[in-house]
Amino acid sequence: MIKWIIILLIIAAAASLLGMPALAGAAATGARILIGVVLIIFLLVVLGVFAVT
Fold this sequence. Notes:
Shape: rod-shaped
Oligomer: single chain
Number of helices: 2
Organism: Mesorhizobium robiniae
Family: Belongs to the UPF0391 family.
Largest sheet: none
Radius of gyration: 15 Å
Membrane topology: Single-pass membrane protein
Protein name: UPF0391 membrane protein ABID19_002233
Structural class: mainly alpha
Transmembrane segments: 34-52
């Protein structure tokens, strides 16, 4: 999933430099959503580890 986030951020940066704000915004929004999903999964894993011990 981290790979997808990096790809979307690169697409957003390239689209922004080339003057395509709609594509840049869409890619940045996709990356932002994936970052949120990764953080939630990470927190669930960390809390699960603490709950087991």
